[in-house]
Amino acid sequence: NGKIDESTCTSPSYDDCSDPLVVSAAGNFALSTVAAKLDYSASCLTTNAQFRDLVAAVEVPAGAPLDVDIVATAVGDVALAASTTCGDASSEIACNSVAETAGVARLRLRGLAAGTYPVYVFTDASSPVAFSVDYLAAEPAPTNDTCGTAAPLTPGVHVVADLTDAHADLTSACGPVAGDLAYSFTLAAPSDVHVF
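^ thats the sequence. predicted structure below, dont judge the formating
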């Protein structure tokens, strides 16, 4: 009849490796999930029929290796994964998907050499995903991730526990956690201890 019945049809942006969001400097981005579909997989991704994915190409400039800190925030479940080759699951270098912190996923990719790294954003959200990228001086990951490698604490000395890429190795009465680090302290006599 000559009528177009798909006048509101939308082509997705950043839906696959052929059309990624190119990131060459630190910044904040709003990623629309409209018309996107699930094209890729990741080791930490749970089964969710509503998931779709978006792709960013994060460029690391020439020079000394850098850490890249990536955060995705969505109204719904969200996960992040990174690899060295787009579309190749075997080249995955990091993945974060934690049900207990639904709505936020974070990766710290450590010591990246110059090059382009695909980053996948998985979400079931229909609203835009807030996606941020920051470039930082390279730092080694914490090594105190088990009881055998617990870092000693000194009373009164402030310590920052960076759980960005920590794994959940230990069990706790507090329930599931995104990741954990282990610390230890020694008492010369029975004492009340406040840790915060």
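The chain has a mean pLDDT of 88.
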